[in-house]
Each structure stands twice: as structure tokens, then as C-alpha cells.
Write a structure and sequence with these properties.
Elements lengths: L12 E7 L5 E7 L5 E14 L2 E4 L3 E8 L4 E7 L7 E10 L2 E9 L10 E3 L4 E5 L2
Antiparallel strand pairs: 1-2, 1-10, 2-6, 3-4, 3-5, 3-7, 7-8, 9-10
Length: about 130
């Protein structure tokens, strides 16, 4: 039963959307913790409105076997044409058999040049989810 599962808050695992030198954008999962995370599942989708018309992207699913402490993994490329949408990444993973789960939501138009900061572990500028 769901009530029997203990959900511990996610700490030190986050999402970054970075802009490459070739002007392409990519989404990364960052494990900033001191523990290995494994059996990682990520779903991504975009939703919102443009000119009062509902828009949504396909739901994409990604699997990453594990991420060692301090490591990162590419989740997917992202097209700037969806930056006006709410972009949601739902991440689930295990640490020592305990499940962790969190939605990372980037608000419409949050992914912009003015919001870029240096992402140390990637050595590139991007928008880091806080």
C-alpha cells in the first residue's frame, strides 16, 4: 500500500538545462550527494498555452542504471521552441533500497539567457533547478 511507503525528501539531486557552445540545449541529472543512486527513472513533458491554445509535448521516459556520488548524466536534448511551456521532469531513484521521488518543474520562460549561471560540475552555463 502507498501509505506503507516512506517518502524521504530529495536532497542533493537536481536537474540542469544547459546551453552548449553550438547553441543546442541539453537536460542533465546531477547527483550532488555523497551516495550512489540507482534504478533511476525520469519522465519529461511540457505543457501550457500559446495564444490561448493548449499545447503539450509527448511524455518521454528515460532510464539510467545508476549515478555514482558527484556524477551527472545526460537525460535528453531540449528544443528552445518548448521554453514557453512548463517543463516537468519527474525523477525516481533508489539509495540502499529506499525510494526517492521528486518533480522538478521549470516555469514557462524560465529557461532564458538571463537565468544562465555556471554549473560547476558540467563546466558550462545553464539553468539550475532550485
Amino acid at each position: 500500500m502507498k501509505k506503507d511507503i516512506e517518502f524521504i525528501p530529495v536532497k542533493d539531486v537536481t536537474i540542469a538545462i544547459v546551453k552548449n557552445e553550438d547553441e543546442s540545449w541539453q537536460v542533465y541529472l546531477l547527483n550532488r550527494s555523497n551516495q550512489k543512486i540507482d534504478t533511476i527513472l525520469v519522465t519529461s513533458k511540457g505543457y501550457g498555452y500559446k495564444n490561448k491554445e493548449e499545447q503539450k509535448t509527448s511524455l518521454l521516459r528515460h532510464s539510467i542504471p545508476y549515478l555514482d556520488a558527484g556524477m551527472h548524466a545526460l537525460i535528453e536534448p531540449i528544443d528552445p521552441s518548448v521554453f514557453h511551456l512548463t517543463n516537468e521532469y519527474w525523477v525516481s531513484y533508489f539509495i540502499d533500497g529506499q525510494i526517492f521521488d521528486k518533480k522538478f518543474i521549470f516555469a514557462p520562460d524560465a529557461i532564458t539567457e538571463k537565468n544562465l549561471t555556471l554549473i560547476g560540475e558540467l563546466e558550462i552555463k545553464g539553468v539550475l533547478h532550485h
